[in-house]
Amino acid sequence: MRSPAWLRALGLCALALGAGSARAQEPIRIGWLSSLTGPLSSAAIAENQGVQFAVDEINRAGGIDGRRLELLTRDTAGEPTKAVNLAQQLLFSDKVQFIIGPVNSGESLATVPVVARANIPNIVIGTIDELIDPKKYPLAFRAINTNRQWIEGGNAYALDVLKRRKVAVIGDTSGYGTSSAKTAAALLEQAGVKPVYSVLVDANKTDLTDEMTKARASGADVVMPWTAATGLMARILNTRGNMGWDVPVVGHPAVMALPIRELLNKPEYWQNAFSAGYQSTTYVDGKLPPRTQALIDALKPALGGKIDFTFWWVALGYDTVKIIEHAVRTAGSTDPQKFKAVLESTRDFPGVYASYAWSPQDHNGFPDRNIVVDVANTFRDGCYDAAPR
């Protein structure tokens, strides 16, 4: 005998509620494309600390609306082809709902279009301008500053504070290094300063004597390196020191990356070197911004009581996950279009690395005012002293 209609309806309702409850408990899967090995790994290793800490923090607090975060980390080794293959794996086999990265712009140039075609939100942490275009890549939102912001900060310090006019620009042959050197030269020329010497160097080249000798012979009074490869940056500093050439070095944040310390022939080779940096990780009167200090205090116990990473990378990694949390909580959903709508209406999201704002017309979230210049050899808990003004 058939059950009454009302009983059958009640059963269907219970099944539906059970299915909805099960879906609510499914993890939110985040793909993390990170170059944890290779010549560009120093930033990724530090960022990974922040990403993992944010995931663990959110999960300890019960997840997002009851859903735990599942982080799927893939090491790209800094290789664009490998990054594309791993992105496709995350998108189509692992079925992630969000992608963070890759870390390096050269890889991101290859992966951002792939992620866009899959209709998956992408938190971009590459700096070159071409990675963000709300029409071509409507679900790509940048958390890091643009490369132009870094370069403008470095150029302003070299030209306006140090009063230098004879600039040697050094980049590497990666997609990022090539683009950066080109942008740096173009922005200098807009300021009325044509570089006296420009060169692209393979990031693994061991002897830079020829390049630095030519830079000095050109009459350069400041060397401006735009490379994320800390090994190459250390060799620039070593070659300058070995030559006895006390020319200031002003450039990419890799100038102050902590791994450089172990690569220098002499500690003093790190003097007279300055780097584009951030308000969030710069000491003012011996103090850091409260949000930065709070994250340092929270991380230190897990790191053995000390921080051996450039902390702005850690803060950036942490913020990428918190941005996803913000959008999902606000939308009440992981739906890509709802995610997009939330971030495009976000005006002052208080991260550690920065306070972010995006709009339908601009998917770059980092404000110009957060760029400062730091003294390279003043590392303390991952942060730095402001350069003299």
UniProtKB/TrEMBL annotation:
Signal peptide from the UniProt entry: 1-24
Domain Leucine-binding protein residue range list: 27-364
The keyword Transport belongs to this UniProt entry's keyword annotation: yes
SUPFAM superfamilies found in the cross-reference section: Periplasmic binding protein-like I
Keyword Cell division: no
Organism domain of life: Bacteria
UniProt keyword annotations, A-Z: Amino-acid transport, Signal, Transport
Family to which the UniProt record says this protein belongs: Belongs to the leucine-binding protein family.
Protein name as annotated: Leu/Ile/Val-binding protein
